[in-house]
Batch of 4 targets.
Target 1
Amino acid sequence: VIIFLSLIVSRTVTVFSFPDPSVAAQEAWSWEQYLTEQKAIAAPVELFSKDQSFPEHENGFQVGMRLEGIDPRHPSVFCVLSVAEVCGYRLRLHFDGYLSCYDFWTNAGSPDIHPIGWCEKTKHELHIPKGYRKDKFVWMDYLKACKLQNAPKKLFRNRSSNGPMPKEFQVGMKLEAIDRKNPSLVCVATIADIVEDRLLVHFDNWDDSYDYWCDVNSPYVQPVGWCQENGRTLIAPQGYPDPENFSWTEYLEATQTNAVPAKVFKMRPPHGFLPSMRLEAVDRRNPRLIRVATVIDVDDQRVKVHFDGWDHKYDYWMDADSPDIHPIGWCDVTGHPLEVPYRANDVKILPGQAVCPTPGCRGIGHIRGPRYSGHHSAFGCPYSDMNLKKEATLHDRLREQTQAHLESDSSHSKSKNLCSLSFNGKHEKVNSQPR
Ligand SMILES: [Zn+2]
């Protein structure tokens, strides 16, 4: 590992030059030199999970390929997706029939994506492209009629090596789970689905936007009775008649359900990230970008990342097992541009050139999503104060079914529909059902 790391840190990273190659000079930047300069250390590669670490396979996906996958905003929903962009080991995925403001980035080895036909095979409901009839949608006809290509099976990562789900975990069983959007809350939850080595956690009587997938060793899931044993408050299901006096015994009986047996929970050891460690992290305000970042704080399940050279107002917490953090050298190895630390004197502005006024921002990306590749003003900037303060929540894709007139890409610029970047920070306000 040490040899491998020293190999990759000694290679240089070319500064991604966009939108104007003359602005960002093709300067060489290297992790090795940077760490020495900063007297900093890299987060050891052993701290990263398989989904975060260096991939074992190339990214073979191509733009236009069709696949099935989870909607990150509705984790219980499987959709028809297409590859809109390929960058290094990452993909921008598009929901067929929807605006590109709902597109999202994922890793090519993500467990959230599957080849076409997977839903049918595994008896999951497939949410078909808008405009098609549920009973009339046939993948092969769709591909043929639209002259589309499916993503071949061999491009998807085989996860069987992680071993199957222990048979004690079954759909419908109850457990106690941490609400990842509000990590101080432990709530009554149900296993809503099981796929390969992961389970879908659903909070009883809450909408599915709180759902999440995790593996059985995740510190987010605990057996029934865990709160009582550990002196924590268990949040009863929404609408429970006497939430202060929630009783598992009564609830299991009333719902005719079983608890996952406590003995099958094996919590993984704590993550080993420590403050001041350097890594590469996806910038979720502008998710096409991966930046040089520092861990500046940690708690049991999370790390707080700071983007080197940027103001601390852009720091935020991420799950320690998030697939969006990577060991140093990951971008170089996978062929993804790395956004290197911003230094004021690096910026060379040509006379008359329109540039974004936000310090550090090179005008890449747009608050309204990938339809606009860049911006020249605070209005479009994902980092400007006006956009940080704004409740930058995306309209719900699944609640816009009736707004067919927004479908056409060409009409978008005239539409008043704000499709802004979704940023769920630590102090987010949940618009549908505040907890
Ligand atoms: Zn900007």
Target 2
Amino acid sequence: MAARIVDLEAVPTDGTLLFTVGHDGEEREAILTRLTDGSVVAWRNYCQHWTDVRLDTCDGAPMRGSEITCRRHAATFDRESGECTFGPCEGASLNEVGVTVHDGAVYRRNRPSTSGSYGNQRFP
Ligand code: FES
């Protein structure tokens, strides 16, 4: 059975909500955001420029319009596709965390990540 994360109504449409997921026996941070069509996407909470930099530091990731912004060097990520549209890691993608919505709640979906073209590389 999929793990329940949070009520759908708690997921912001103008920001992100931090949560944790188990990965290879470790807890990792991820962020949820709700799109204009009501769907929900989740990304690992790490910039693709320096992957030790968190996008959401517990108070919601900064947003610029519909894009998630990194506080460190201002890279922006399309919150629907996860693609970096501006900044030192332009063209890279955030790592997706599979989630699904059912009966007014968001659940973790058990499937491998499908994005993250730059993996754990660290860019200069
Ligand atoms: S660490 Fe995020 S843009 Fe540099």
Target 3
Amino acid sequence: MTEHVDVLIVGAGLSGIGAAHHIQAAFPDRSYAILEARDAIGGTWDLFRYPGVRSDSDMHTLGYRFRPWTQAKAIADGPSILRYIRDTAADAGIDRCIRFGHRVIGASWSSTESRWTVRAEHDGATRVFTCDFLLMCSGYYRYDEGYTPEFAGTSDFRGQLVHPQHWPADLDYAGKRVVVIGSGATAVTLVPAMAETAAQVTMLQRSPTYIMPVPSEDTVANQLRRLLGPRRAYTLVRWKNVLVSTLIYQLSQRRPQQMRKFIRGLTRKQLPDGYDVDTHFKPTYQPWDQRLCLVPDGDLFRAIRDGRASVVTDRIDRFTATGLRLESGGELDADIVVTATGLQLLALGGLRLTVDGQEVALPDTMAYKGMMLSGVPNFLFTIGYTNASWTLKADLVSEFVCRLLRHMDAGGYHQTTPWPDPNVSPAPLLDFQAGYVLRAIDGFPKAGSRAPWRLGMSYAHDVITLRYGRIDDGTIRFTRRSAQPGDAEFTGTVGPGPGSEQITA
Ligand SMILES: Cc1cc2nc3c(=O)[nH]c(=O)nc-3n(C[C@H](O)[C@H](O)[C@H](O)COP(=O)(O)OP(=O)(O)OC[C@H]3O[C@@H](n4cnc5c(N)ncnc54)[C@H](O)[C@@H]3O)c2cc1C
């Protein structure tokens, strides 16, 4: 049996629930459904259950534009974020439109029908859906497996080896010696959280990361909320935080040496006198060449000051029965080793796409405005910013979808396709030097050397182009189903893809 909806959303995480909210509010009469592979709402915020899991951006920008974040803490814990997403879904009745346990595996576009046919695995069978618009909100990484480098001797280790993506609910680390391998956001979250009850926690890093302390509560936000009420305060604080984070990012790009000095000054203040800041907190790259790690109220530094946590900068030679041997010859004893070594990126939830019978190789496509694919009709995807909160972009993508649908309604169009420009040269979709990006970026669509193909990383710029800019910009093309190329009444230019001819009547 095939079920048809106007808009099909893949993924019930932060982006999918947000997208459903926008579409439902803008088009109460349109049908939509969300297909979700797991049995829960929340995506990232349901999957990750390690101690201390939290955001490292503020919730005034990680929250939805349409739903003020009203809690005192701006850097929020994972369960609070999950509750926020679930409440958003429940309050708007979005949860009734989610089909859990549906893993989308393939989608085929037919230009004759102006329609997607989407296949999903459910309970060992294949379910088929059709839709006019397909919106991928499937995140950016594999859910079934995190990334663990090959370490020699892991089978010799008699302690417990844990990856943060698969945290055992019953893991008891009280009084134990813990080594956390890694220096990214997950490692710097885990170390102070586990140090509260563990005997000792060591963060073992190959190389340092920029780590900046931030207050977990935003006093300006909390006072404005009392004065102006939640909605007006939220809008103001959102812009305040966008401006501050843009300023930090721009300074990092334009004046990296000054920014290095500034972060180093903050770090020194947080650590005991004589601490070897250069070895453990002086990265070799420039600020924001990789994501800047924020630590609320300097909790990581406090744990180091209190002697409950320490940092070792070295390389692993091999695991031993009792812990780790390091290349320097040192040994670290451990009862538990946590491999906070990252994610495995995955483009579009592993979906296989075909357009009019032809398979779409993602690396051969180019991303239009960072949310549509060249030659792929009626298809949008959400990838957030790497230098700002994810939801800022996710909200804009959803708003753009609504504008696009309105434009198509007004013109009586059935199909819209970004048309590739042979004069634009391809560039990596994410210009970001983090290891997890470099490992996988070849499997992703490309970005282009100039607008609208360059992936913008400026929220203010995207507000202008996505919320207010022209929809019909000459790069995306619109067609009507009744008027196929060659028909006398055909009036537009036509997709669906690269290699097709441009036809005007
Ligand atoms: C530990 C951690 C902390 C983070 N902290 C921050 C932060 O502080 N700030 C920030 O901006 N970003 C942060 N991020 C990035 C984070 O992923 C985004 O903020 C946001 O949660 C992404 O939401 P999403 O809905 O787009 O994707 P996800 O949360 O990944 O949700 C995707 C959903 O799609 C489903 N899905 C995937 N493929 C398929 C398929 N083929 N069929 C059906 N369903 C599918 C998944 O099961 C999942 O439910 C963090 C990420 C991690 C891992």
Target 4
Amino acid sequence: MSENDFTLPGYDIPEEMKNTINITSLDRLYNWGRRSSVWPLMFGLACCAIEMIAASTARYDLARFGMEIMRPSPRQSDLMLVAGTVTKKMVPMIVRLYNQMPEPKYVIAMGACASGGGPFKEGYNVVAGIDKFLPVDVYVPGCPPTPQALLYGLIKLQEKIDKQSLKHVRWYRKGPDSVEIPVPLLGPDLIDLRRTEEIKKIAARKVE
Ligand code: SF4
């Protein structure tokens, strides 16, 4: 965030005071702190993860965004980078990890597979996009996306954070937004527990 974005417009600070004081809002200060220290959870699912690893090398310098510290624990992370094919077998673990991350937390779907199933969309073992289970903030297209594309997605996430307000963010509110996502069950197929009633009705119809 540049100094111009940080300072509230309409307040002209005298030239000699510019390096000493700044006038801003609590929202801007709070967002600046969060957007400059987004720590991604360190895990990958398939080929896209290789590009994610490449993006964290010195050549691309993730430290510019304060995002170079990939954490091995969900409890220390605030960004889930879903990089790769989301199989039904992996979804329960991904949702559990997401639930274990503290708010505020964000999700980036990296690549065609994580965004919509990609080349395996109709596969019997593949979920057609992680957004079937988690609230995705940014989609990064490509198969695989380049490290530059991922960086662009990270910048878009920062822009999204910049627009948030303490008055409206979900982690300070009570209600359905703050409820944990039920971990899906993997049996003969993947069962989304949020759809239990619907599944029961369909099963009852089949018995009739
Ligand atoms: S989007 Fe392409 S590169 Fe990424 S995990 Fe799927 S198949 Fe691999």
